[in-house]
Amino acid sequence: MSINLEDWIHEADLVSMQKAMSSGECTSEALVLAYIERIHRYNPLINALLEINPDALEIARNLDLERNTTGSRGPLHGIPILLKDNIDTYDRMHTSAGSIALAESFAPEDAFVAAKLRAAGAVLLGKANMTEWSNFMSNRMPAGYSSRGGYVLNPYGPGKLFVSGSSSGSAAAVAANLTAAAIGTETAGSIIGPASQHFLVGIKPTVGLASRSGIIPISISQDTPGPISKTVTDAAILLGALVGIDENDKATWTSPHRTFHDYTSYLDRDFLRKTRIGIPRHYYRSLDEERLSIMESAINVLREQGATVIDTVNLHLEQHPWNNDVICYEFKTGLNRYLSKLNSDMPVHSLQDLIAYNQKHAASALKFGQDNLIRSEQNALNETTYQLKRQEYNHPAVTQGIDYVLDQHGLDALMLPGDVDGMYIAARLGYPLITVPAGYSAKGTIDADGDSTQGPFGVVFSGRAFSEPTLISIAYSFEQATLFRRPPEMG
């Protein structure tokens, strides 16, 4: 082998890895082993992984043999990919959503997206730590904490910088080069937020583009899996592997003719000069001086690259809050359905069981309480009142939201800061988002102790349903014009 894997995998992208394996400079087995060695060395510093797939090396060896005998399956053949711990796998890895109640739970089959990755030749490297129950357990629970795994730490400033969103372990692992890329899930901000805070690219696809079957749910109307990676190219490759029609997820039935199995054809370096991008200033108002400066610099990049920038546009949704009744109803319904199918030896088979289990094991299970679980269990909506509430909840977003402002100004996309505020509008409609690194703040996002430390920050591009090709083109053009991504100083 002519490459030094220990050094090379620090920032190697999927294309480079595939070329190295195809040329014989590297094998999947060697790649997986190098990542496992890094995990053993660096994961104790950031707590990003819950477990390594005990079969990963054997899977890699079999894929190497397959490459040598029948050829490669494609751009993910032999590539190690990490999964968030709410995504089912049929193998010897657990699926727990970060809860000690499910710490010994094995899923009977792969989630749809896990099966798609296996079919594409990816090596499922392990399960990432996450905010327990995708941060729908307690309003007091900090991002990145789970009773099963403890705290995820941001490798750019462990214990000092915000990790953001429930896919924090997936993002921290990719940022620290403990995996080639990862799959997260998002209800509202849980892919985009962590990717932004870890100098990564994240894509929250349109709901229905990638199936949710086999993923521990929060919201049937908002949940979606999506890629987290170091580059837009890698994210585009991964997205193409995830999409597809699933008979077990009705949302995917609406996506034929609007999905692509190769999003890399939309990697257009010069795309910004063809675009009109709106700036919704309302969502810039809470930024500190440094992150506002990063956003102003990003706007200047758009202009320098030839984009037409419309500054300012208004979404008229600021006074329409999140509807907890709707989300609590969906969470209770979806979680009861998931838990009811678990093996009989599991201690919980309903939300009511889960609440009782947590109370019985309060010392380890209830560090931050379970007010959201209790609120969901007590939710009194029936199917009829739920549908009426959901309609009421979505009406302002449909009539005054993203489509409205894009049509009003003839825009291709909106550009938002990489925090959570502006992501709720897209979440309510199930619309796509993509984040890309935009700058490094001297303050970062500081935790409660007030320490001042540097930290990454990203911009977010938002568009209408199934506009992933446009958003990928915009993000790639921005990325290639700036190249802000840099790894954390971990060795």
Could you spell the SSE succession in H and E letters? Answer: HHHEHEHEEEHEHEEHEHEHHHHHHEHEEH
Gyration radius, to the nearest Å? 21 Å
The residue ranges in which pLDDT falls below 50 over 5 or more consecutive positions are 444-453
Strand content: 5-15%
> Outline, from the CA principal axes?
globular
- On the 0 to 100 scale, the average pLDDT is 93
Assign a percent range to the helix content: 25-40%
Organism: Paenibacillus violae
Pfam families: Amidase
Domain Amidase: 31-417
Protein name: Amidase family protein
Describe, in plain words, how this protein is organized in 3D:
This protein is an alpha/beta fold. It contains 17 helices and 13 strands. It has helices spanning about 5-10, 15-25, 30-45, 55-70, 110-120, 170-175, 190-195, 230-240, 290-305, 325-340, 350-360, 360-365, 370-375, 385-400, 400-410, 425-430, 470-480, and strands spanning about 50, 80-85, 125-130, 145, 150, 180-185, 200-205, 225-230, 275-280, 310, 415, 435-440, 455-460. An 11-stranded mixed β-sheet has the order 1-3-2-6-8-7-12-13-11-9-10, sandwiched between helices. Strands 4-5 form a two-stranded antiparallel ribbon. Helix 3 (about 30-45) runs antiparallel to helix 4, helix 10 packs across helix 13 and helix 14 (about 385-400) crosses helix 16. It is globular and about 60 Å long. The two termini are about 20 Å apart. Residues about 445-455 have low confidence and may be disordered.
